Amino acid sequence: MASEAKLSHTAAMILQAIHAGFVYGFSIMEMTGLPSGTVYPAMRRLERDELIRSHWENQAIADADQRPPRKYYKITAAGRTTLEASRKRYPLLERLIPTEEAKSV
Amino acid sequence: MASEAKLSHTAAMILQAIHAGFVYGFSIMEMTGLPSGTVYPAMRRLERDELIRSHWENQAIADADQRPPRKYYKITAAGRTTLEASRKRYPLLERLIPTEEAKSV
DNA sequence: CCTTGTCAAGTAGCTTTCTACATAGGGTAG
DNA sequence: CTACCCTATGTAGAAAGCTACTTGACAAGG
Q1: Does B90 sit within 8 Å of A31, measured CB to CB?
Q2: Has residue B27 got a pLDDT over 70?
Q3: Please, what is the average pLDDT of chain A?
């Protein structure tokens, strides 16, 4: 996967969502309407391909908020490059989930 | 499939595209960026489930335009009902492909 | 002529997505 | 204290999607 790993529409949407600040699985499920059985395996593949990276939330924070700990994701440099390419392939994607930059314009 | 056949995200996107006036396979490929191997089988399933209906373009029209004949699709009443339900499930869908009604607002 | 290009639809076989269910802690309602 | 809902992640097996290729007709270029 030297340069650009081609993404499916769903994978691109998930990557775009992470880029836009929906940084854990459940939030992506809610905002996209995609089921857990799509989102979690897809994120594992994105991480396997090093387009995103993850770390578990501190248990103390989860306890304080009275909910299960979240697995937070962030996009890597390679992920940003691939997302850029996917935006060209799926022109509708940009419209879907506005990024911070897009919002401020 | 008495009432609401549940649609995948991709199937919903294709149905929405047809509803929005992209009425043959190739135009849907171009506007969504989805490959032919996704679009044509998906449309066959939509037709099998009677959410859309198809008819071949008159050969004379294709000849006059110097291109292969198109297979035109249109959404059925059941299709509109299912699409309505899918819009609730996939909140991003409405933003993807604006319908005639949405455009005029 | 013959190769290359474009539009349009289609298929085989591998990969991804979806449905349905599981796990687990906490809250709340009876 | 049992039953059920909410957040959050996860899995197995069936269904659907994706890559690469094919068909076919017509146009353009050499």
Answers
A1: no
A2: yes
A3: 88
CA A64 to C1' C30, whole Å = 28
Pick one of 3.40.50.300, 3.40.47.10, 1.10.10.10, 1.10.510.10 as the CATH number of B9-97.
1.10.10.10
Q: Which amino acid is at A78?
A: A
* Architecture of the structural domain at A9-93: Orthogonal Bundle (1.10)
| pLDDT of B46 | 94
Nearest C-alpha of chain B: how many angstroms from A1?
A: 21
- Looking at the complex, report in whole angstroms how far the Cα of residue B48 sits from the nearest Cα belonging to chain A: 24
Task: Give the position of tokens 């391909």.
Answer: A49
The residue ranges of every structural domain in chain B are: 9-97
Q: Which two tokens stand for residue A29?
A: 């499920």
pLDDT at B101 over 90: no
Picking from A7, A14, A1, the residue whose alpha carbon sits closest to that of residue A97 is A14
For residue A13, the chain B residues in CB contact (below 8 A) are 92
Question: Number of CB pairs < 8 Å for A and B?
Answer: 36
**Quick one: pLDDT band at residue B2, thresholds 50, 70, 90?**
very low
Joined tokens for residue A48: 């396997």
Looking at chain A, the whole-number percentage of residues with pLDDT higher than 70 is 88
